[in-house]
Structures are given as C-alpha cells and as structure tokens.
Design a protein that fits this description.
Number of helices: 13
Structural class: alpha+beta
Shape: elongated
CATH superfamily of the largest domain: Nucleic acid-binding proteins
Length: 322
C-alpha cells in the first residue's frame, strides 16, 4: 500500500564514491538496477525504487516515471520529505497525490475580478469542476495561517522539500517553486508583470520590505514603496521597486514599514513603463504594483527571509564580487 501511495519525482542516487540528485524521467533501464535510490535528505536514508512510465486504462492515460518508496523502508522521524506523515497531521487541508504535497487555499491569490468576486468571476467550467472535486477538503484561509503551516512542518517557507508543494486555488493548481518569489528573485516579479499574454497575470507570493508611504493613487488608494532591488528587465540591468496599493485605509494600517512581509498578489506594471528605455536601463526603479484588497493577502514574516544576497547587486551591474 505504501509503495502505491508515496512517490517522489527526484531522489538521491548512489554508487560507491558517487552521489547525485536525479529525476525519475532521466533514469534509463540500464541504470535502474545499478544505483541505490534514497531520500533527498541524506541523513534520512529511506530507500526507493524506480517505477517506469506506463500507459494504463487501455493506453488512454500516461503515468510518468517516478520513484516509489520501498514498503520495508521508512523515513527518519521528522524528515521533511515524509509528506504522508505531514498530511496525516493536516488532513483537513492537505493530501498527498502524484509525487506531491497538496494544500488548498481559500484567500485571494491576487486581486483580479475572479479573486474578489469568484461567484461572478471568469472561472471556467473545468476550474469549477476541479474545485468541486476537492470539496471534501477544507482550506487555509490566510497567508498568515499558510506560513504558520509551512514553518511548523518544514521549518521555513524556503525549505528545499517544498519543491513538491502544490497549491489548489479556484480549481487550478500552482507549484510552490513557480509561485513563491524570494527576495533574491525579483526578476521573476518583473517577468510576471510584463507578461502580456493574458489580461490577468498569475498570482504570486512575494517577499517584500515596505520602506515608506508615498502619495496616494489617482483613486485615493494609499500606497507604500518597498525596498528596490536589481533585476534583469528584457535582458538589461535595471532596478525594481514593488509598490503596495491598499484598497482601504484599514488595510493600509496593516502595512509594517521596515518589516519583512509576504504578499499574495498579481503584479502589475504600466505599459508606458515598459516603453521607458531609461527605466529599463537602470536610471531609476521600475514601479511594479501589488494590489491588496483583503487582509488575508498579507502577513509579516521573519526577517530571515529578507536575503537579497550580498554581492548580487555588484555582480549584476558588472563589478566583480568582493
């Protein structure tokens, strides 16, 4: 039963004098019985075997290759990759399926029309059906509760074991590595905001550090400028400054200057800014707006998550690291 349920996309492969992280899809048949496959936590030692790619249901469905844990092998107590153990403690909001640890969230992942008015939003039939399929699960109701869950089970929202975390929101699935933007990855904020393939950008979780309140928007919304960091904008060295826009004065009171915060938002950059060559070349920060319409979209987090990486700015702008 265990071998059927607990699987991983990547493991540590071992030979005498050799170890390397490998993905199941990259293991050839000739390697299958040569290597030892073990948990990514080297101190754990849980053993796995390769399960080949298959086409069940009369070849109407493809199941990718994966690593399944040996029934006789167990993770060490507290192993971050023991997802099934974590699910057992939070079964009301999470489940384990297809190599991943799944968590439902029930707070706005951004501030588009569908986020704010899901009953009237542009959700597809497929999205609604997928959400209905998870109706037996409750959901995490705020970023604060979400951070608390991850820190309790993984110790950090940046733990490498979270590569297998999948979020479920409004009938869609979002992998944590593609949704979470750390403080040293601001180029990803620019890319998300500048992507004009859709009129609604994908919501992200981003680490920001508000510095000061600036002038309100034309609609009277209070705004807070955050610490700017270097980015690559269309391949050029530039700077990006997140600007938090608050729907109400009450929300603005929740913005803590000089504190590290996590925001769930859909980044927006003005099309005019994308045409400003001076900004794109680094002559002034590129403003990217993060709109907050609900208190559950933001929370103060520990300062350990504010890590722009010493030397990153010098290297990005052409000077060597010290």
């Amino acid at each position: 039963m265990w071998a059927k349920r607990e699987t991983m996309k990547r493991v540590m492969t071992y030979l005498p004098g050799y170890k390397k992280i490998r993905a199941a899809a990259d293991i050839t048949d000739s390697e299958r019985d040569v290597y030892d496959f073990r948990c990514l936590d080297e101190s754990c030692g849980a053993e796995f075997h390769l399960r080949r790619r298959s086409w069940p249901l009369e070849t109407t469905k493809e199941v990718s290759a994966t690593f399944a844990r040996n029934p006789s092998s167990k993770h060490k107590p507290g192993c971050d990759y023991d997802y099934e153990n974590k699910v057992s403690r939070h079964s009301s909001v999470s489940f384990f399926k297809n190599d991943a640890y799944h968590v439902r969230i029930n707070f706005p992942l951004g501030s588009s029309y569908s986020d704010l008015y899901p009953e009237r939003g542009r959700l597809t039939v497929a999205q609604k059906a997928a959400a209905q399929g998870n109706a037996d699960k409750m959901a995490v109701r705020s970023t604060a509760a979400f951070v608390s869950l991850l820190e309790k089970e993984f110790g950090s929202i940046e733990n490498a074991a979270l590569e297998n975390l999948v979020l479920h929101y409004q009938g869609r699935s979002y992998g944590w590595p593609g949704t979470f933007v750390a403080s040293d990855e601001y180029t990803r904020i620019f890319n998300a905001a500048a992507d004009n393939k859709s009129d609604v950008t994908q919501g992200i979780f981003c680490v920001v550090r508000p510095e000061l309140e600036i002038s309100s928007s034309k609609k009277g919304k209070r705004r807070f400028a955050c610490t700017e960091l270097p980015v690559l904008a269309n391949g050029q060295n530039a700077k990006l400054r997140p600007v938090i826009v608050c729907e109400t004065n009450l929300l603005a009171q929740g913005i803590k200057t000089n504190k590290t915060m996590l925001l769930a938002a859909r980044p927006f950059v003005s099309p005019n800014v994308l045409k400003d060559d001076d900004l794109l070349r680094g002559y002034g920060p590129i403003p990217v707006y993060l709109y907050v319409a609900d208190q559950t979209q933001m929370t103060v987090i520990e300062d350990k998550y504010w890590n722009p990486v010493p030397g990153m700015q010098e290297e990005l702008y052409g000077a060597p690291r010290p």
